[in-house]
Design brief:
The protein has 5 helices and 3 strands; from the N terminus they run H-H-E-E-H-H-E-H. It is mainly alpha-helical. The longest helix is centred in the first third of the chain and has 26 residues.
Length: 120
């Protein structure tokens, strides 16, 4: 639903039928509703974008690192495992169907990896 549609629906169904709200106030109310809609949309977009940016690594049963990924989405694309399968393995600290382990990479480890990649 677009902002215009949402604002028009709210004006028609909630604001205009209210006798206490003068009709002259509707443009100002519409502008405020548009700004609120945009703020909510921006906040939701930011939340969605940051949700999948936690770095993870794929490990063998004996603890050897097979690969590292900047996000669960990237890991799912590169390995062919499903996002939910990786996420549940991370949450349970258990193996996936293939017998591999997944773990989150801590922020201090990410900084070290970046430093090493810049040097070498």
């Amino acid at each position: 639903m677009t902002a215009d549609t949402a604002v028009n629906l709210m004006l028609e169904h909630d604001i205009l039928p209210n006798k206490l709200i003068p009709a002259e106030a509707c443009p100002y109310i519409a502008k405020a509703l548009e700004m609120m809609y945009q703020a909510g949309f921006d906040a939701a977009s930011k939340k969605i974008m940051t949700r999948h940016t936690t770095a993870v690594r794929l490990m063998t049963i004996d603890g050897k690192v097979m690969a590292t990924y900047s996000s669960i989405d990237e890991a799912a694309r590169d390995t062919g495992y499903g996002y939910t399968g990786i996420k549940s393995a991370l949450k349970r600290h258990s193996r996936t169907k293939s017998g591999h382990y997944w773990e989150y990479i801590e922020q201090h480890e990410i900084k070290q990896l970046r430093r090493y990649s810049e040097v070498g």
